[in-house]
UniProtKB/TrEMBL annotation:
Keyword list, A-Z: Signal
Originating organism: Vibrio algivorus
Protein name: ABC transporter substrate-binding protein
Domain called ABC-type glycine betaine transport system substrate-binding: residue spans: 28-309
CDD domains (alphabetical): PBP2_HisX_like (cd13641)
Pfam families xrefs: OpuAC
Phylogenetic lineage: Bacteria, Pseudomonadati, Pseudomonadota, Gammaproteobacteria, Vibrionales
């Protein structure tokens, strides 16, 4: 595999603590290999570290959010789900924890899943006021509508997606129409990404909805626009996410909780491996850039794991103590 430098952020998680290395307790471990890029990357990194630092015998098994959670609760397998978007299986997870079948290990994405309205970094570098909604409104004329020069464009979430509802309500709550903005439906997720890529290639203005972690924000640095109103999880759930929302407030999206979840039996039988999982986490900036590398190189989870382990000891070493670091480094040297 031809590799190229990724340049992940070297910011280290404040929650990273050294671990002790006791390998003999781990045994056979099954890890859910979910069918999206960040999750399969996480699963492969966990496999490599658990095998080489803790002498686990690891098997990756296909997974998806609800089926995996259900299986973990009812059958006690797989042992580990590295990336579960908890709100998608909230009742199942709460039930599993209450019945002492499951345990939350860590927020696998320390920033949580992010949604918001964004502008390109190069625009904010030139005019810092564009990092705020008031600055965007004051400069609405910059964001030319692709079909009507007299209007300003706001690229919204594609029709049929849940985020179209929330983005539309927040657009209304911010009264963006009064500043001349009109929602532009890109038609698909790929088309929405293409509008960002096109703007970046030409260094043109762009304003719209997007989310993280994604390869798009790894390739094209964007700044999330601040509304100045904070967030309100209750209002978000009861109004912003509902089709009928009579009086939406201009709140920021609350972060989506993204967790590593394990079975209680695994946590009890492999405490040292469990400690690793409680400290293994990624920032969205790190994951965005990893996803961009995977897309550019058409890489699967195993290839991405190799790239990460070879190039980013500055990150993974913080999850381990000196002894386990040495064991993992010896395995990395053999890649």
């Amino acid at each position: 595999m031809k590799k190229k430098h990724l340049g992940l952020s070297s910011l280290l998680l404040a929650s990273s603590f050294p671990l002790s290395a006791v390998a003999s307790e781990c045994g056979t471990v099954s890890i859910a290999d979910m069918n999206w890029s960040s999750a399969t990357f996480m699963a492969n990194v966990d496999k490599f570290i658990l095998e080489n630092a803790y002498d686990c015998e690891v098997e990756l098994v296909p997974g998806d959010t609800v089926p995996t959670t259900t299986s973990m609760v009812e059958k006690g397998e797989p042992d580990i789900a590295p990336e579960l978007w908890s709100n998608s299986a909230k009742e199942l997870l709460e039930s599993g924890v209450k019945e002492k079948r499951l345990r939350f290990a860590v927020q696998s994405l320390s920033d949580g899943g992010e949604e918001g309205f964004w502008v390109p970094q190069y625009m904010v570098d030139k005019d810092p006021s564009l990092a705020t909604i008031e600055g965007v409104k004051a400069n609405a004329q910059l964001f030319t509508h692709p079909e009507d020069d007299s209007k300003s464009a706001f690229y919204t979430c594609p029709a049929g997606w849940t985020c179209q509802i929330s983005a539309g309500h927040i657009f209304d709550a911010l009264h963006l129409d009064q500043s001349g903005f009109e929602k532009v439906d890109p038609g698909s997720g790929a088309a929405l990404a293409a509008t960002i890529a096109k703007a970046y290639d030409r260094k043109q203005p762009w304003f719209g909805y997007y989310w993280a972690p994604t390869s798009v924000l790894g390739k094209y640095p964007m700044v999330k626009v601040e509304f100045g109103q904070g967030t309100d999880a209750k209002h978000y759930q009861e109004c912003i996410t509902q089709v009928e929302c009579a009086a939406p407030k201009p709140i920021m999206w609350p972060p989506s909780k993204v967790d590593t979840v394990v079975t209680e039996s695994f946590a009890n039988r492999a405490p040292e491996a469990m400690k690793y999982l409680t400290h293994r986490s990624y920032t969205n900036k790190q994951m965005n850039q990893m996803l961009a590398w995977m897309e550019d190189n058409q890489a699967d989870g195993d290839m991405a794991m190799e790239e990460f382990m070879l190039k980013h000891k500055d990150i993974w070493s913080q999850w381990l103590d000196e002894k386990t670091q040495a064991a993992v480094q010896a395995a990395v040297d053999e890649l």
